[in-house]
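It is worth pausing here to work through a concrete case rather than discussing structure prediction in the abstract. The textbook approach is simple: state the sequence, then state the predicted structure, then interpret. We follow exactly that order.
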Amino acid sequence: MNHNTLVITLLFVFNGLMNKYIYSVSRRLIMIQKHSNYFAIIGCVLTSFFLGSAFVVASFGVMDQNLFHSTTGGSLDVNITSSPEVIITDNEAKFKITFFEPGTNKIQVHVDYDFQVLENGEEIFSAAKQINQPLLHTAEGSVTIPFVFSSPGIYLIKIPVLGINFIPINPEYAEFKFIIK
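Step two, the predicted structure:
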């Protein structure tokens, strides 16, 4: 059985359209034309399913789809990802923050920073304050911080940067908006 016959056979089996004409070379093209509407409908359904899934994730998880921002002073680029991607109230979300040298994909080591969550402009969480420190430090340039959102809404995650390679800098920050259901 050649490749075309195998593909046609699988398509017809999938759609329940396998019949006596599948083995006829002259009738194969007629059947494809006759049943092409079925293939178009199935294609549209599958496309809608996959696109619909993408829209659901976009509308639930991250409001700001650009999860890679430069700090306000341009000293660093900051990437943030959440696990799970769709954040739900009362479930722990883990935020992975990675610092990069500006304009590169090279991780910046030894960064002094904080992880803050703001709701309606009010700070509701600071990772540094949780451990009674003015700031946090990552030697590796990447860190994961857990947080539980107690109510739905639009939140701002702010990553202030206060030092690079043990050298203090004027405070800069990167901000990311999240919508929580």
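Step three, interpretation. The radius of gyration is 26 Å. Residues 1-29, 44-60 have pLDDT under 50 and may be disordered.
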